[in-house]
Design a protein that fits this description.
The protein is mostly helical and 141 residues long. It folds into two domains: 31 residues; 92 residues, no CATH class. Strands 2-1-5 form a three-stranded mixed β-sheet. Strand 3 and strand 4 form a beta hairpin.
């Protein structure tokens, strides 16, 4: 005669519902943070050595340019110091001067460096916010 033993499968003890919810939320948050960090690293690598998207100076878009390219573009596009006019008016006379005659100069290298530094200086959170704001709505330095 053959006898069969009853085999019972025992399941591991389950966690309380609030603990399961906590583990699920914590896992989801960790995955989100990991995904966000991967995106930030990929964005930084893809824009290494160039000005971040959405950054401009005086309306001149410098997105994707190196510092030297941005300085060259600014030197060509921003001609106000040489071509602009400042008017001084007295009760009897009017005088017109160019901004460059009054000492106004545009340091294109420093301006390009300021555009390049946007999103690369400050604390880590402000750097990410600067990049996001520049990319989403543009940022004029």
């Amino acid at each position: 005669m053959i006898t069969y033993r009853e085999i019972r499968k025992t399941s591991p003890p389950s966690l309380p519902a609030f603990l399961q919810l906590f583990v699920a939320l914590a896992g989801g948050m960790l995955l989100f943070i990991l995904f966000a960090m991967i995106l930030m690293v990929a964005f930084n690598i893809s824009h290494a050595g160039e000005i971040y998207p959405g950054v401009s100076i005086a309306g001149v878009d410098l997105s994707g340019l190196s510092r030297d390219e941005a300085a060259a573009l600014l030197a060509v596009k921003l001609t106000y110091p040489q071509t602009g006019k400042i008017v001084f008016q007295d009760t009897e006379r009017v005088q017109v001067a160019r901004p460059s005659d009054l000492g106004l100069i545009l340091d294109v290298q420093t301006s390009a460096q300021a555009a390049f530094s946007l999103g690369r200086s400050g604390n880590p959170i402000s750097r990410q916010i600067d990049k996001l704001v520049a990319w989403y709505s543009g940022r004029d330095v």
